[in-house]
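Support reply, case 0932

Customer input (verbatim):
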Amino acid sequence: MARVRPSAEPQKRSAKDRPRPRLLWRLVKWFFVLGLIAAALGAAGIGGIFLWYGRESALPLRNLADYHPKQVTRLISSDNQVIGEIYVERRTVVPYEHIPKLLINAVVAAEDAEFFHHQGLNYLGMLRAFTANLRHGGYKQGGSTITQQVVKTFLLSPERTLKRKVQEVILARRVEATLAKEEILYLYLNQIYYGHGRYGVEEAARFFFGKGVGELSLGEAALIAGLPQSPERLSPLKHPEHAKERQRYVLEQMARRGYIKVGEAERVAREPIRVLRDASPALGVAPEVVDAVREVLVQRYGEAGLAEKGLTVRVTIDSRVQQAARDAVTRGLMTVDGRQGYRGGSGKVHGALDKAIAKLKKDNGPLQKGHVFEGIVTGVDDAKQELVVALGDRDGVVDLAQDERYNPQKKAPAKRFAAGDRVRVRLGEREERPASRKGRKGGGEEPRLALALELGPQAALVALDPHTRQVRAIVGGYDFRPGGFDRALRARRQPGSSFKPLVYAAALAAGKITPATVINDAPDVFGTWKPDNAEQEAYRGPVRVRQAIAHSINTVAVKVINEVGVESVRQLAKLLGIASPINEDPTIALGSAAVTPLELTNAFAAFADEGRVGTPTFIVSIGQEAVAAPPAQPVLAPEVAFLMTSLLRSVVDEGTAGAARKLKWYACGKTGTNYLRKPQPGIRDAWFVGFTPDLVAGVWVGFDDNRKLGRGEQGSRAALPIWIDFMGQALKGKPARGFTPPPGIEIVRIDPRTGLLAAPGSAAYKDEYFVKGTAPTQTAPVEGEATPDSFVIDQQNGAD
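Our regenerated output:
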């Protein structure tokens, strides 16, 4: 049986198994078409998004072309120190050409390596950032170019939304089409935030390194260039290790891009970061001057205009002298505190605490800044270093952590205060404390006020150059803060005997007296007023004017004003620059007219400046514009001014300011003590105003609410030591010289008992200054021939 061989021909496949090329092709075509449709729809969607959000992106790019940001106005002292700043944002704009290429390269390497090559967007960078963020499941890396950052900073909000990102892309392209690369960098480097309240590269350079941006080294430029990524986390002051790591990265990128050599990058990376802890050591030393200058600038430019000016204002303050003034006031007040016990409560609550607190509301009245209030301690916290103080229907918190004045021994709060203590407080410079408590009667929660202790007195000091009237130092109070009450400029207080020199100057100018005129120190009645000497001081009988000034004898000063006339003294006070109201009665001879420390100090400056009066000034120049003070005008004859310097020297040589003899400089001045009999007898104000040929200064000490200073705290004890302390520091390096008599002055030998010419051969005599033609012509009688009463000014009617 023959075998059947299989056929060599392949078997035919069934219709089911055969491929269907037409169907597959149709499917490919359909998928392709669907893909095109999807791409078209996607493109249309994206285009729609860009069109929709792009409508709102038609923001005026002139905001970039017309760049006027908020800048800091700087106050520069006479010794070239930054002593104050006025700002909304701390920024100093510098032109692009003043920014070194070194820093530009560092910034580009750190932030946007392709900046000079792209057109506002770095698509590869955006893709890398998207991938990184996707990998980390959140925002990890930004892909924004410098141009995009400028858009975000100037034209958009910081929110991270699709809308803002679309607008950012659109505007970045527009910015690139409108501005040159250099203009974009100029905006970026001046606007960006660098931490610690500083904006722009110039402020960053000044803050961290104490130099302008043009002086930065490679390491400093690399550090600053790296900060914008995270200014607080990368701060070399807060986190030096993070700052070093970021600086090293910037240096590596600069080397990679060919801006610097690899070896140079490695060398700088090994160097430690050296930043200044205090780039402006004198900053904040004169907040009183910042307030005064700011007031002038706001009047000139307005609030909004000043914020954008970025001015450099040269001021008259000497930072060293200013610091000496503040230190002297601090030490002087702490001395008074220790002497009078102004370091704890002023009393205890007796009886029900709630009733005493309820009464405070009526007694204190509205709680206003600048006022002093009575409070009652309701809580003491040693851990927080705080006192809780009730003021009536409000509570406040006193932060004792910085209480150096009233706690020099650094005792714990519980060692100093207890619940029920009465304390004097004022509103603090801070806002209300966020801490709160339940209402006293169980009501809702109420914020606590920030309070500061006001246990002891306040003080003011002002110092002028007597020849230019430029203010060299001013202290408006202990721990003065910007916006506070400047007592040197605004506190009108009764000057007591420190006003007497104006009385004597008026009488000298009118020819009513000479330094040798003898006047009887004895009680007298003027209408219904019977003045007497301070604290029942014994009457001396006939005394010369020089003695009366030296020992501040009240009865003599009143008789002199009665001789020259109240109106003459009032007019002279106005001519000498005292703008405060002067009452029209003879009590002004004893200082009853309230004046400011600046007014009285400026009046005394006329004595040191040959009788000329000028306007105290704080500003030398604003920008490039010099601010000229009005020229000084003669008010007193140089001879009268010289006699006053001589008479006021006697206050130091033999009178109430004898403590000032310790100074090696020729000092003149007058103490002042304001003693009030009502409602309770006591001393309210202590003064000393004095001068040398180079500096005049006035000091006031007292309580803002006019309470008693304390037993014995007269001008020579409370104010004079502050003046001596200050002048001893302020005059360092100045020559010790006196005042030169003008040509119209002559020296005549007089008899000290009578004020007449000394008898020939008399062993008892004094040399006295006179304006030529006013010296006595009579010779003193030999002792026993006549009594001094023959030569005393009439006490009753002031007859010549």
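We compared this against your earlier run and they match. Two observations from our side: Residues 1-8, 48-52, 435-444, 786-800 have pLDDT under 50 and may be disordered. The first strand starts at residue 73 and ends at 76. Please reopen the case if you see a mismatch on your end.
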